[in-house]
Design goal:
- This protein is mostly beta strands.
- It folds into two domains: 5-53; 76-124, no CATH class.
- Helix content is 14%, strand content 37%.
- The chain has one helix at residues 76-93; strands at residues 5-7, 11-15, 30-35, 38-44, 49-53, 103-112, 115-124.
- Strand 6 and strand 7 (115-124) form a beta hairpin.
- It is rod-shaped, with a radius of gyration of 31 Å.
Length: 126
């Protein structure tokens, strides 16, 4: 079983999905193994073998996390139409003409940990 590559030119790196992979086939005393949970360090000495999770692998380059938008830009005319539609919906349903009148106030009494909290919900109608 051949390693996929060498880390720092010394430590073999394996992937558990590669053909013929088996922990028992690793010849080196130290090796890195990649599985679904990340990198593991394989150590072998005269009395034991161990596979230990590691947070990072010294010597590997770091890939920067990023998101690149690849979708085409939305036409300005479409954005204006959608914005106008939402404006009309808001004005018909939620706009308060007079903030001191025409309000529906519903008080909900909530009980939590033997404490009472008063919550007021204000909703306006045309």
């Amino acid at each position: 079983m051949e390693p996929l590559f060498l880390i720092n030119g010394i430590f073999p790196a394996y992937w558990i999905g590669q053909e013929g992979f088996s922990i028992e086939k690793i010849q080196a005393a130290f090796a890195y193994v990649l599985d679904a949970e990340g990198w593991k360090l394989y150590k072998r000495n005269g009395v034991s073998t161990a596979v230990i999770s590691v947070d990072s692998v010294a010597g590997l380059a770091t890939l920067r996390q990023e998101i690149n938008l690849t979708a085409q830009k939305l036409p300005l005319d479409l954005i204006r139409k959608v914005t106008a539609w939402f404006k009309v919906v808001y004005q018909k349903n939620f706009y308060l003409k007079d903030l001191n009148h025409e309000k529906l106030i519903s008080d909900l009494l909530l009980e939590s940990n033997n404490k009472k909290h008063l919550v007021s919900k204000k909703v306006g109608f045309n």
